[in-house]
Amino acid sequence: MGRRVALKLSGESFADPALAYGIDPATVRRVAGEIAAARAEGHEIAVVVGGGNIFRGLSSAAEGMARADADYMGMLATVMNALAVQDALEKIGCDTRVMTAIAMTEVAEPYIRRRAERHLERGRVVICAAGTGNPYFTTDTAAALRASELKCEAILKATKVDGVYDKDPRKFPDAVRYDTVTYMETLEKRLGVMDATAISLARDNRLPIIVFNLFEQGNIRRVIKGETVGTIVEGGN
What we know:
- The chain has helices spanning about 25-40, 50-60, 65-90, 115-120, 140-150, 185-190, 195-205, 220-225, and strands at about 5-10, 45-50, 95-100, 110, 125-130, 155-160, 165, 175-180, 180, 210-215, 230-235.
- By secondary structure, the chain is α/β, with parallel strands linked by helices.
- The chain starts with a strand and ends with a strand.
- The chain has one domain (about 5-235): Carbamate kinase.
- The strands form two sheets. It has a nine-stranded mixed beta sheet with strand order 4-3-5-2-1-6-10-11-9, sandwiched between helices. A two-stranded antiparallel ribbon has the order 7-8.
- The model has no long low-confidence stretch (mean pLDDT about 90).
């Protein structure tokens, strides 16, 4: 049997690279193809999706709203992305289940840990949407939570860059990339891997976080297979 992993896809994973918002079918198909290829090799994959690509377009409407209401809007955006991934995966023959932390039984199953485990064991890609179901928690924290609950070997954090740097490599050409970094270093140096709650949850459950470039062809499949890609966050408890 292959690895069981939690793949965290931010909203940018679904967007047209030129626009940075919306859902781009070609981008979703590429991501789905790599997930399906890894699943075909025997790996068990729980995908946790963000919603920034949709919610960013609604941010002006949310301005001035109560934080909880705005967070619920963001959770609904993640469900749209989850359905897009499900459609792309099933069109290429990969069995899936979308499971949401907020009940909406007409479009998805409610997230139930034991049911999610059975789906993984039966070869289905489980797509987790609506974050934790609670405001004030990010989808990164949801990824750490689901990975812990489902006994995943690692959290795979897909980003725009090829690992963790001491500063933003898109702004600073002298930025230095880490091959490995500890949980505490990411918190103390504010390296922006995930929010502090997600990092703490991963640390407490000894879950390595692998940060890699989503937009390099084949990276999703390689990192799921366990190849050395990107930066590993672990240790230093």
